[in-house]
Specification:
8 strands; binds 2-phosphoglycolic acid; binds magnesium ion; Phosphoglycolate phosphatase; HAD-SF_hydro_IIIA; hydrolase; carbohydrate metabolism
Length: 221
């Protein structure tokens, strides 16, 4: 086992960019929503840098990129609704698990670690994605960006998870790909582990000074 797991009993994972490479499907849904509003699609490469603060922010960033200004609230809302519709229809067409993810989750689950998922993605999308990959039974609790009033980098979702499992925060590890995960983890008092392959607004996640980094989650186990 990786030294970062020493004394840890609960491991909380981020979803997008940590467990799954979801940007190909997210970008299709964003671009279809933009197209419905007379806006040219921005493409996968741009969308990759905008994921991590939930779906409202994702659509705001896409519209702003296209027009150079903040979208009017009704345009933003309508484009967001369209995104939810399109993404809900097809969340698993091109989305893939990153290498090492299944092995890490199987081994941690098998060894009795409590596992949780905290994503800023809307909660409704979590179950269909986990089911597609046969990972639903691994997680004792899953929170989306709309599950609580606060989302990452606010520490509230992580504190909620620790309380749910009756764990001290010193027994908890946050695993993520972005500064929002590492900041939320640090503020909650969790130990933090980062992966470098996900989405962090085009910047290295090492700059957030996680307690440890691994190239693949397989290194955890
Ligand atoms: O911003 C999102 O929608 C998802 O981001 P996360 O799974 O990396 O928290
Ligand atoms: Mg992420």
């Amino acid at each position: 086992m990786h030294p970062v797991l020493e004394g840890i009993r609960l491991v909380t994972f981020d979803l997008d960019g940590t467990l799954i490479d979801s940007v190909p499907d997210l970008a299709v849904a964003v671009d279809r929503a933009l197209d419905d509003h007379g806006v040219t699609g921005r493409g996968e490469g741009r969308v990759r840098d905008w994921v991590g603060n939930g779906s409202h922010k994702l659509l705001e960033r896409a519209l702003r990129d296209a027009t150079g200004e903040l979208p009017a609230p009704e345009v933003h809302e309508s484009a967001h609704e369209a995104f939810l519709h399109y993404y809900g229809q097809a969340p698993n067409v091109k989305t893939r698990l990153y290498s090492g993810v299944r092995e890490a989750l199987d081994v941690l689950h098998g060894r009795g670690f409590a596992l949780a998922l905290v994503t800023n993605k809307p909660h409704a999308f979590i179950a269909p994605i986990l089911e597609e990959f046969g990972l639903s039974a691994h997680f004792g609790l899953c929170l989306g960006g709309d599950s609580l009033p606060q989302k990452k980098p606010d520490p509230a979702p992580l504190r909620h998870v620790a309380r749910h499992f009756g764990m001290d925060v010193q027994e908890c590890l946050m695993v993520g790909d972005s500064r929002h995960d590492i900041d939320a983890g640090r503020r909650a008092g969790f130990r933090t582990l980062a992966v470098p392959y996900g989405y962090n607004h085009g910047e290295p996640v090492a700059a957030s000074r996680p307690d440890a980094m691994v190239e693949s989650l397989a290194e955890l186990v």
